[in-house]
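Supplementary Data S3. Sequence and structure tokens for construct A.
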Amino acid sequence: MLDLAGQAEPVARACHAMALRFHRGGKLVVFGNGGPSTDAQHVAVEFVHPVIVGKRALPAISLTADIATLTGIANRAGLAEVFAHQIRILAEPVDIALGISTDGNCENVLAGLEAASALGMLTVALTGGDGGLIANAGLDHVLVARSADPRVVKEVHVTTYHVLWELVHVFFEQPGVLSPEVA
């Protein structure tokens, strides 16, 4: 299982990189297949509408929230393209792609992350199991909840994306941490 304390450095690096992209005007583009599709929506709302008073709202969208777009793309281009197509149309190089996959082998999540990487976006993945194909895709940041039990992976992912949210805000609250010299 992903030991968040034992993975403090990779998590902090991902958060700092995300904070830099937000600081430069980027937005978070989140997506997942199946159960992680609702996690993607949860992550987006956390960033856009923080429940903690005084925390900064940051731009984020979930590519799973528009069922008409998802089914339209799936009908014409296939399910494997539902996220990659949206990224190519909606995203910019300054943005952040966060893909969520319980086993790391979701074809459409991998395709979305690869499209994001090709565009120059920061790529962050939350996976489970051994990380699957996504862990070997050459992405910027991959955080793996090392469990074969999808329920455990889901709980670790929820904790992880809340930590990501919190640490991005911590970086925003520290003067000078987002300056070019620190990056």
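Construct B, processed identically:
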Amino acid sequence: MGELSETVLFTNTAVLDAAAGAVAPGRRVLVRGGEIAAVGTDVEAGDARVVDLGGKTLMPGLIDCHVHVNAHTADLSGLGDQSPAYVAVKAAIELREMLARGFTTVRDPGGADFGIHDAVAEGLIDGPRIFFGGKALSQTGGHVDMRPRGRSVHDDHQCCPDLGLVCDGVDGVRRAAREQLRTGAHHVKIMLSGGVASPTDRIDSTQFSIEEIRAIVEEAEAANRYVAGHAYTARAINRGLAAGVRSIEHGNLLDESSVELFLEHDAFLVPTLVTYRRMAAEGAEYGLSPANLAKNEIVLDAGLRALELAHRAGVNLCYGSDLLGGMRRHQLDEFAIRGAVIPAADVIRSATVTAARLLGEEARLGQVAPGFAADLLVVDGDPLADLAVLTDPGAHLRLVMQGGSVKHGALD
């Protein structure tokens, strides 16, 4: 489970300031009580364990705003029929691996529930702290309606480990949103358009009526929570943003009109480019059907263009991976994909300070600064100069600390 939190003084380190996009060498960082107590050039603490980092970079733990910890297979239509115990064990293994990649926090917008959240929070299993949405909401025939065309019944029991819940009508979606919020969900995820991994919808469809979307947003806002919306096309994105959806997941087919709405509402975009690359390369191996692979081709190349357009306009960008099954081992590749078109500092911000703001944790996560949680990575190299420092943890990641406790590596 990792070493217990202790008072540690890191010396001779280059601190990566994610907000400023700069590295400050020759710094000292004091960690006490699970938090960062001080950062500077002359920090002292007589009771601290002193760790000389030899000039290595100390940076904030990474935040992935779009993971599915239950999705150990890309065949999502069969996931709900599996044993919840089996899926939970698989999720625990994946969470431990995410933490070892440097992700100290993740947001799961479909599948993770209060049980897996509590298991991590109580230290029963090692993993990133989880901001969960419970089951994603879908209309009949929408993106998480996994029934084939010939099946009319579906089982929405809470303990079925599928990723979503089918609901219709203003009263129905209100009830469904309230159910997720009742369990402690940090946000409500809804399907605004069709998707790749679902069996019967189209990528270019819109889903839920405007009245249904607004009802879900009202319920989330009443609970001081927000709505995350899966959407690809500009039409679907714009309907969601105009109705008050706070984050758009994917957004591969957005246009200039979408960008204007993002800026007007100070909304967030969570691209997930790596998942389309990996589904094209190995999706069939992990259970994706030929029909799903054909839909993947529609959004594969458009994602980079959408990222460039949103970045140039100053849209809030957050890091997301959305990988399924064995493809989740490529979680860090999103850094390289984005780094080919936008500056490294902005890519890192998307996985730290901007992601923390989406989560409502901008005063606690995403920076190496006094008062912040001691979620820290020690890396050999400067990620601002070369994002490969982050994409190859075996070669560069020396330590993962979460809440002041060492989770990967050791305090030498």
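Residues 8-61+365-409 form a domain with the Urease, subunit C; domain 1 fold (CATH 2.30.40.10). The chain has two domains: 8-61+365-409, 63-331.
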